[in-house]
Amino acid sequence: MPGLVGFVGRNLDLETGKTILKDMRDLVTHDTTYVKDELFLKDDVCASRSHLNVVQKARQPFHRNGVYIWLDGEFFDGREAAQCEGGDPAVLYRLYQEAADLSNLKRIDGIFSAVIFDSNKQLVHLATDRFGLRYLYWTVHEEGLLWTSEVKAVLAHPGFRPKIDERAVTQFHEVGYLLEDRTWLKGVELLSSGTVLTWDIRDRSLRRARYWWWDEIHAQGANVDRSEVLEVAGRGFKDAVERRSGLGDGIGVTLSGGLDSRAILAAIPARSEPVHAFTFGKSGCDDIRIAKRAAIAKGAVHHVVEIDARNWFSDRLKGVWWTDGHLNLMHMHGIELLDRMKGIVKINLHGFLGDVIMGGSYLQDGQNFRDHHFLPLVAKHLGCRDDLVENWEAYKSLASPEAYLIQNRGRRFIAGGLQILGTSIEQREPFFDSGMIELWLGLPGYLRLRSRLYNQMLVHNFPSYFKRIPWKDTGMPIGWPEGLAWVAGLGRKVQDRISGGVGGKAYSDYPEWLRQDPARSFINELLFDSKAIYPDYIPKDGVEAEWACHLNGVDRAERICRYLTFEIWLQQVFGGRFRPELGN
Prior knowledge:
The chain contains 22 helices and 18 strands. The chain has helices spanning 14-27, 78-82, 87-98, 166-175, 226-245, 260-267, 286-298, 315-322, 338-341, 354-357, 374-382, 402-414, 416-421, 434-441, 445-448, 452-461, 463-466, 482-498, 510-514, 519-527, 540-551, 557-575; strands at residues 4-8, 35-36, 40-42, 45-51, 62-64, 67-75, 110-118, 123-128, 137-141, 144-148, 189-190, 195-200, 205-210, 251-254, 276-281, 301-306, 347-349, 426-428. Helix 6 (260-267) links the parallel strand 14 (251-254) and strand 15 (276-281). Helix 5 (226-245) runs antiparallel to helix 14. The chain is globular and about 70 Å long. Residues 366-371 have low confidence and may be disordered.
């Protein structure tokens, strides 16, 4: 998604600096509707921004008393902004004046990345929100610092020679995505969540400090008052959605047959203009059928985009470029919605990880994970070998592996959908309200396990959306007794297994669609061409065997699409192929 770019050079002449910076900014500009901020050059600091002109509309940098600020994303605590004239950048300036190490960022409820250039102290600070959901990548190159909201922009810097990180290759093809802060390119990292990175221009030194971590969430006692929690949680969720609904701008919801997006739709306060709901999937699938009922309950305008073997594939080449090859193209669900959403809504409310935060989807029946039990459990969740799990020592003091999985499967995989939609529509994630996270993840595990408290909260606060409208996972409303719902869910799984999991109820049939054109011909031409690049990193005969197995009816779609994504990204980086033209 668009955002920030910049670098600290050494003795650069003005024209060279402008050329490099402009090229970097152009690489994160994916549509002619984007607004490009000025090219800023001062004291060897070169910085700019490209954005959707929805939030942070004022030209950046924000400047006061020798301090320059670029901010991508937004803050949602109106009390902070009300005390500052100049919006969120002014809030950030005030926080910087209060604490030069920016440790007070922990009190901000927001999803953002930021760059602060203090010309008085000759320091550049890069900062991310608590959860690291507004990406900011960085690297040290030629004794200078580079930063960008998308990895691809580093390719514009002369002298930078991209080299593939072989551990990233192993992770992607075994786990399905990259872990922690790794990227495809050696030396280029994703800035960690809740972190401030500081570059001293004078001595070219670097330091990092984390201002927030998951161990700051305080566990509540086992004997909590369930009814009180229900009231507090319901009120908090409604407040979180209201703060993110805004006024005036067109509001959309990517609506499925699940619970999270429906909960957001239900919680949107009354508005003078209609709410728009967007659903994609196969004709007749459960998602479309259930989402339609939820949209009717809200009085929302419901937009449906049907996908099939003919139209699911082509846009995903662009998606590989937009996500820097980090997201398996098979999981770019909803990319088909972008053309429909453009011009209708400016802000989309996304149910990102609601099932994890409130529903405890990553919880196990046993809740005490410590020491030697932790690593194998995390590896099991990730579906990989123990030795591929990174940075796990930082999580050992926590009570469960949830934080690790949120940071990895959530932030590095599922959040790819936010990146895709974020190329055209501003994304907001109500379940990642700071207060909500602290409340729900502080609850005893038994309350969250199998969505017990979450379901009660939804039925209690939004009965017209959850008492009668079914949940796609069981085919029954969540208000039904847990045992009956479990039996129904088991029956659904049996039906799916009999039908191969791709019956009329499923929203897609990727395994079969890969066997049909246009995907089949594209795969044959790309992966088995003599000019393919991936054989430099992965044995080609193994890929050929997987593809033959898939064509013979054994589902290898997940792995085939990993190979395909990797090769497309390699071609985009090293061959200049498959890069989308601006505005397409």
